[in-house]
Structure formats: C-alpha cells, structure tokens
C-alpha cells in the first residue's frame, strides 16, 4: 500500500520536505500535534481541507482541443484519434470539409476510422452503415430508408491554421467558447514552426515544465549557463502568468537562440533586459519574448492533449512563431538550425517530465515539494480548471474511481 503525502507544501517553507519513507512519521505526528506545520494530514492542505492529487485531475473537456494537424486528415480519408481515452474519428469529405464523430459504428461498435469516406459521409467498413457529419445514420444497405437506426455522437469541429479543433465536452457550450488565439501564426511578420509529439506524462507536468524557468540547468549543454530571474507574477480568472529575465553566466549564445533574437550577442551583455512572459490560460499555454523595444520576437502557443483514459500520455501541439528579421530570407536559411535547436530542448524536457511521471506512479502519490510560488499558483489553477468528479490514474495503487466522460448517450442498444 502506498503512503499518501501532503500534496501542497508551499506555505510552510522548505524545511519540511517529506519523503515516502517519512510518511508514517508524519501521520503519527499529525495525531499528536495538530499545530505543527509538518503534521498536516496526508493529502490535505494547511487548513486541513483535502487536496486533489493534481496528477489525477482530468483535463476539462469543455474547451476546444486540437486533435490533429490538418495534413494528417487527407481528402476522402478517415483518421482515428483519441481524447482522454474517447475514440474520435475525423473525416475529410470529398468537398474538403472536416467533421468529427465518435469512433464506433452504432451496429457492432467497430471503429469508424476503419471505414471509408463516401461523398460527405462515412461508411462503416463492416456492413456499410453510413453516417453523415452530424452522426445521423443515413443508410443501411440492407434496410429500407424508413427503418434507419439512430446514429452516433458528433463533435463540434473547426479547422484553423493547420489544426483541427474538436470540442469534446458538452456540445451546447461550444458556440459560447471561442477558439483560442493562436499566437502570431496569422501575422505575416512571423514565420511559424508547427511541432509536437506524444509525451508520456500527465499534462500538468508539461504546464509546470514550461512555466518553471528555474530548470535552465537541464538545458546547460544546449544553452550554456543561463540564470532566470522571476520579475513577478499575475493571476486572474482562469489564468496565471509570470515574467522572467535571463542572464548568461558563462558560455556562448547558442545559434538557435541568436536566430530567435535576429542578432548575435556575446556573453552577459544586454539579453537580461529581454522579458519572457509565460502564461497558462486554461487549458492553453503561451510563451512570449519581448525585447527592450517591446518587439515581440518569439511567440509560442502550445497545448497538451491527453490521449489515454488515465491521462498519462499527452500529445503536444505547438506553434512557434519567430519574428522575421529585416533581411528577407535570413530566417529561412537559419530555419533548420532553429528546428534542430528546439528539438534538442524539447527532447530534454520530454525526458525529464516522463521521469517525473514515472516517479509519481512508483510512489503512488504526489510527493513533489514545490517551493516556487508561481508553480503552486499554476497547480491551483489546473486543479480549479480541471474536470469535476473525474479521477484519473487508476492502477497506481490507491485510486479506485474512474468516472468516464460517457460519449455514448444512454444505452447503446437503444441507438441501434
Ligand atoms: S459494424 Fe458497422 S455496419 Fe455493421
Ligand atoms: Fe525546458
């Protein structure tokens, strides 16, 4: 059985770092001395209120999430994806329109992505039941059209800037919820790199990794010795953001970084005047760098979409926009270097957050000892924004409840 540690340790300083081995001691102390800071009940905050393990908070489905790049969904083809374990089929019709349905045939439940696009519909690959873009069954080859069964669920779907967004939550909320602003991707003054891949961790580790610039040590081989300084943080309804400056302590400016700024700098000159602002606006994240002249030189928009039911894997979709320098073509020439540089950094981040996830699964609970206030605010935001009543991550020892977001309205048998 796993011990359950305190989940938040931000109010009583660094002196009470717990460890799995010390959990029993802490629990015993709680019984005898309720006032001692380190005697907090396991899984409880300072006021003794229960705290949800952030790594088991499901992402909230009532937002727009990209589930594929446009180029992955070819004309006249289906494409199977998942959102937090829910199978969804994307289809691009002969006319080029994209739509999203639950990825199951109402008949025998086989995935519709194994079927074929037929005009503006999907025809199941087994007996040929056919569904239009609203999920309505419009043809069963061996039944009369007056006896058609109910169809399957459809999802609101929009294609913007090379991304296919789906609204996996309550469809009636989709219209009220605008699509996110995608950084500077639509601005001709910027060139944008589209990137991302699956990462085997809960999405919250990704948010924390990007917002916590104190981990420059991890990137020392790529970046040289950089020191981040937090200038301050702000918090509002549904968002938190933080500003940083950076000082180079030693080493040369890497070429990839120079490309971002459109100029090369030597050691520790004025790059500590540039300001990086990182913002989580649930469920998205942005990172912007502005020079002293307030020129936005880098604008990153990114989101981490859970793939599996336990939300231990996410697919990252990132749009990295770099302001074009004065001399046309320079950025195009330098682009492969920028790609190489950002891939190296991304790989280091991916490996370390996957290590965090493995540690969480091994320990069966969240033993993180976070000392940076920004990250504790971020964690609170992700908890508040997360799905209600949804506990994910079963199989790690002490979580028995998984409530699925049921994509099949009512009894599936009633639909057929
Ligand atoms: S399983 Fe799809 S048509 Fe029969
Ligand atoms: Fe990083």
UniProtKB/TrEMBL annotation:
PROSITE patterns given in the database record: RIESKE (PS51296)
Classification via InterPro entries: Cholesterol_7-desaturase (IPR050584), Rieske_2Fe-2S (IPR017941), Rieske_2Fe-2S_sf (IPR036922), VanA_C_cat (IPR044043)
Annotated spans, Disordered: 1-49
Gene Ontology MF term list: 2 iron, 2 sulfur cluster binding; dioxygenase activity; metal ion binding
Signal peptide segment: none
Keyword annotations of the record: 2Fe-2S, Dioxygenase, Iron, Iron-sulfur, Metal-binding, Oxidoreductase
Rieske domain segment(s): 64-166
Regions of compositional bias (Low complexity) in chain numbering: 21-46
Full protein name: Aromatic ring-hydroxylating dioxygenase subunit alpha
Lineage, broadest ranks: Bacteria, Pseudomonadati, Pseudomonadota, Betaproteobacteria, Burkholderiales
């Amino acid at each position: 059985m796993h011990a359950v540690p305190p989940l938040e340790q931000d109010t009583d300083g660094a002196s009470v770092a717990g460890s799995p081995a010390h959990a029993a001691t802490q629990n015993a102390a709680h019984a005898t001395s309720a006032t001692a800071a380190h005697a907090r009940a396991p899984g409880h905050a300072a006021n003794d209120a229960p705290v949800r393990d952030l790594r088991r908070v499901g992402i909230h489905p009532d937002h727009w999430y990209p589930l594929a790049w446009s180029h992955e969904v070819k004309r006249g083809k289906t494409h199977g994806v998942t959102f937090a374990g829910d199978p969804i089929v994307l289809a691009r019709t002969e006319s080029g329109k994209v739509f999203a349905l639950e990825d199951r045939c109402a008949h025998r439940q086989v995935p519709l992505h194994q079927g074929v696009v037929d005009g503006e519909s999907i025809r199941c690959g087994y007996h040929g039941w056919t569904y239009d873009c609203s999920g309505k069954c419009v043809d069963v080859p061996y039944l009369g059209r007056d006896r058609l069964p109910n169809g399957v669920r459809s999802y609101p779907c929009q294609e913007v800037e090379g991304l296919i967004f789906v609204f996996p939550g309550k469809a009636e909320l989709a219209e009220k919820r605008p699509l996110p602003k995608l950084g500077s991707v639509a601005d001709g003054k910027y060139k944008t790199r589209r990137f991302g891949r699956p990462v085997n961790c809960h999405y919250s580790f990704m948010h924390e990794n990007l917002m916590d610039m104190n981990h420059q040590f991890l990137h020392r081989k790529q970046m040289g010795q950089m020191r981040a300084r937090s200038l301050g943080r702000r918090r509002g309804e549904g968002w938190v953001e933080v500003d940083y400056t950076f000082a180079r302590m030693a080493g040369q400016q890497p070429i990839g970084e120079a490309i971002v700024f459109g100029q090369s700098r030597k050691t520790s000159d004025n790059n500590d005047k540039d300001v990086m602002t990182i913002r989580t606006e649930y469920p998205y994240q942005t990172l912007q760098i502005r020079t002293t002249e307030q020129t936005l030189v880098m604008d990153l928009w990114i989101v981490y979409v859970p793939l599996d039911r336990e939300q231990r894997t996410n697919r990252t979709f990132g749009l990295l926009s770099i302001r074009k320098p004065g001399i046309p073509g320079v950025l195009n020439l330098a682009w492969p270097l920028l790609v190489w540089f950002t891939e190296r950094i991304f790989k280091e981040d991916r490996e370390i957050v996957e290590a965090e996830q493995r540690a969480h699964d091994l320990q069966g609970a969240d033993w993180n000892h976070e000392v940076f206030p920004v990250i504790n605010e971020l964690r609170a935001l992700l908890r508040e924004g997360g799905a209600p009543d949804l506990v994910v991550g079963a199989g790690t020892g002490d979580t028995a409840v998984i409530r699925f977001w049921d994509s099949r309205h009512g009894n599936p048998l009633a639909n057929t």
